[in-house]
Write a structure and sequence with these properties.
By secondary structure, this protein is of the alpha/beta class. The protein contains nine helices and 17 strands. 25% of the residues lie in helices and 24% in strands. The longest helix is centred in the first third of the chain and has 14 residues. The protein starts with 11 loop residues before the first strand and ends with a strand.
């Protein structure tokens, strides 16, 4: 696994918009405030041509323009890392305009983003054997005051932190809007982790039980399920070729969803399993579903995952600080991780080997 150099003091941060940019509120003001904060710390900022663009459909500009911007900025030697401006809907359409062979041959560079940015973070790891950060996008860094999760994201980019700890509370309904672009996360809900272990306390084979503690080790791999199943089966899906390289380590699949309802989550889990993606799995780390976590026809968000995960007889940690319902732990995709969930606290130690 290739790990990029960490962002140094007064280093240069590049910003790209391969998905949505920061052309509208509250994202524009938040991004401007984030830029002031970074500049006050001495960082040099390089903005791509699409950061404030809005002429695309589901992304900042045309797929060709977005692909060109991302390719150019990744290969440029005058920036040290890249942070995506935002998520969106159709980042997948830029992929045919990226040269992953050229990206693989270049010096590795940190790329950070989440949601639609799974199209880059996941492929950097599986196609280019390069670690990436599944973490917040640029506008989130403009909130006042910054949440500890935002500080953690910078500490991961700068190499100051490899041990992450959950944050205790999460945001169900945010207060940021066009008139209040800088408000921080509105965390009102207590973190309640669910640790599922295979087997049964007094039960038989194929059963699960909720446990006070769950522990797993393996390489982190995953992202937003909405995007992952869209990549599956395309020419960009080289997962089955990638997995055997690290079969001795095994994998922790970190997964979260945006638009999927509980049946969509269950179908996504089934599809990834049938494609062989869960070979060598050591555990599943599942974030809170964003839009459609409610029960449907007797299926809830937990059984939607467990129906597939149970066949692999590995621990499953659910409702983790991961994804679209903030705060989110900034995970280094491709890193080896030691994960422990106990007493409603989650610890993830990332080891860069």
């Amino acid at each position: 696994m290739r790990y990029p150099e960490f962002l140094k003091e007064k280093g240069t941060i590049g910003f790209v918009a391969p998905s949505f940019g920061c052309s509208i509120e509250p994202y524009r003001t938040a991004f401007e405030n984030a830029r002031k904060r970074w500049q006050a710390k001495g960082y040099v900022l390089h903005l791509g041509p699409n950061c404030f663009a809005s002429d695309g459909i589901g992304i900042s500009s045309s797929p060709e323009n977005c692909g060109r911007e991302l390719q150019d900025f990744y290969l440029k030697e005058d920036n040290d890392c890249l942070i995506s401006c935002g998520g969106g809907e159709l980042m997948c359409e830029i992929l045919e305009y990226l040269d992953f062979d050229e990206i693989s041959a270049a010096a590795p560079k940190w790329y950070m983003g989440y949601s639609d940015n799974t199209n880059m973070t996941f492929l950097l790891t599986t196609l280019c054997d390069t670690a990436s950060v599944y973490g917040p996008c640029a506008a989130a860094f403009g909130m006042e005051p910054p949440h500890p999760a935002i500080e953690d994201a910078m500490d991961v980019l700068t190499g100051k932190k490899r041990m992450l700890r959950s944050y205790g509370m999460w945001e169900k309904e945010g207060k940021r809007d066009e008139e209040h672009p800088l408000v921080p996360y509105y965390c009102t809900e207590p973190l309640v982790l669910r640790n599922y272990l295979p087997g049964s306390e007094g039960g038989g084979e194929g059963h699960w039980f909720l446990a006070d503690e769950a522990v797993m080790e393996g390489r982190l791999l995953g992202g937003c399920m909405d995007c992952l199943v869209n990549l599956l089966g395309t020419k960009f899906d080289q997962v089955k070729k990638f997995l055997p390289k690290y079969q001795e380590d095994g994998f922790i699949w970190f997964l979260e969803s945006c638009d999927l309802n509980v049946f969509g989550i269950r179908r996504a889990m089934w599809q990834m399993e049938m494609a062989g993606w869960f070979q060598y799995v050591k555990g599943f780390l599942i974030g809170r579903p964003y839009c459609h976590g409610q029960e449907m026809m007797g299926l809830d968000q937990y059984e939607a995952v467990l129906s597939t995960a149970m066949r692999h007889k590995v621990p499953v940690i659910m409702d983790a600080d991961l994804g679209h319902l903030p705060p989110m732990m900034p995970l280094v995709s491709g890193s080896y991780a030691k994960v422990k969930s106990t007493k409603n606290k989650l610890e993830i130690e990332m080891i860069y080997r």
